[in-house]
Amino acid sequence: MAAVTRHSVWRGLERLGGSVVSSPTAAAAWPLWIPQNININITSGRTLATGGSAHVDTLIIGGGPVGLSTAFHLASEHRGGDGSDIVVVEKDPSYAKSSATLSAGGIRQQFSLKENVEMSLYGRDFLRDAHNLLKVDDEEVDVQFQEHGYLFLAASEAGKQQLVENNTVQQAAGCDVHLMDQTQLEERFPWLNTNDILLGSFGESGEGWFDPWALIRNLRRKCQSMGVRLVTGYPTGATRDRPSGRVRSVHVLEDGNDVQYHPRNVVNAAGAYCNDVMTTLAGGDRPLRYPIPVEPRKRCIFHFHCNTEQTDAIVPQIAPLTVCPTTGVYFRSEGLVRDDGVPTGNFLCGVSPKQEFDRAIVDERDLDYADHELWEEVLWPAIYNRCGAFGDTKLKSSWAGLYEYNTVDQNSIIDFHPEMDNVLMVNGFSGHGLQQSPASGRAAAELISYGEFSSLDLSIFSFERCCENTRSSPVFEAGIV
Fold first, then answer.
1. Is this structure's pTM higher than 0.85?
2. Which of 22, 39, 170, 238 is 20 to 30 A from residue 347's alpha carbon, by CA?
C-alpha cells in the first residue's frame, strides 16, 4: 500500500499564518464539556491552585474508548510497552455520561465504504482477542462480545440494490455477511414480519454487541500497566507558537490544580465535546478558520420486556440488531442467552430523530431524560409491526446519551489540523466511535509515530473534506443508518 503522509492531503490548502497565544482560560462562554459545578473562573483564568508543569510526548484529551485505544496502541506498538510519556485526560472517570457506556454497544461490518468495513473488521478481531491483548497479571478479561449479528432489511427495489452493492464490498473484505431472500428470512427468523421485505443482509459472525464499560475498564488497566498516566481533569487553555500555530502548552485543571503540559503532540479524542476542545486549544482571541464540524446530539435508548408466555406469537430467543427499512427503528436482544433456550424477553430499541428535530444540545440536563414520545409514537408501533410478539411488552427503562455528529458526512475525521499541525483529531464518528475505537486508535498511533498510515489507508477520512474550497469531497455511507 502506498504511504499516505499527514501533510500530503493538505497540499491544495492555503497556508495559514499569524500568531495565536491564548490565556489558560480564554473561552468566551462556558463550554458544555466543563462540569458546571466546578469552581473555576473561565473568563479571568484563575484556577484553584498551581500544579506545576511537565513535558510529555503525547497528551490525549478524552479518556473514552478512542483516547484509550490511542494510548494503548501508541505504548504497545510504538513505544516497546513503555507509555510513561503519554498522558490521558478524562473529565469523568465514572463515565456516567459517556457516549460509549450509554450506547447500544454494537459492532458491525455492514458498511458501504471499504474503509469503514476494514476498521470494524479490526475491531472485531480486537474484541475477540481482548482477553490476551488487555490482560494484566492473571486477571481475566471478558468484554462479553456476543456475535449475534446485524440484520438489515430492504423494502424497495432501490434498497435491495443497495444491499447487493454493499454486500459486494463486504464480501471482498472477507466479512461473514450474507444476503437472504424472503423465504430464507422467514425460515431463519420466524418471528419476523417479512410481508414487505424484498431482501435481507445478515452478519453470521463478527457482528453483534459487547460491554462498553468492560472494554473501557480493561483498556484503562492495560494502559496503566504500561505506565500511561491517566488523570482526572479537562483542558482550560493553551499557548500556541506564533509562526507555526503549533500548540506549545496546554493547561489542564486536575483536582483543582492548574497543570501545564508541554506536549510534542496533542490528540483530540473528546467525542461529542471535540469542538469545544479545539476552541480551547486554539485560544479565544482568534477562532480557527477551519473549525471541526462536529456537534453533540442526543440519542435515546429504550429497554423493554416482551411477555415470553405468549402462545399466539413467537418471541425471539435471540434477535440480531434488526433495522427496519421503513422507519429506521432498530431493536435487538439484551442480556446473555439462557442455557435452557428459553427467551429472556429483554430487548433494546432506538431510532434517530427526524432531521427537523435533530439539533445540537447546549445543556447537558437534556440528557437527564429520554424522549418518551419516541416510544409511544415511533418505536412501539414499528417494533410491533416487525414482530407480533412485541404487542405484549412493558417498558422497563430508558436513557439518553451524547452522539458526536459530523455535520459534513457523518463519518470520522482522523487527521492533523492545518492550523495546529501537532493536534491530531480523532473525532466525528457519528455513532461508530465505539466499534471503530480499536482501529482509530491504531491509526492515530501510526500518524503520531510515522506521520502516515501504515496498516489501513484511512486518508479518505482526512480533514480536508471538511474545509471550503478544497478538492476533497465528503464521503457518505450508502443505505446504512
1. yes
2. 170
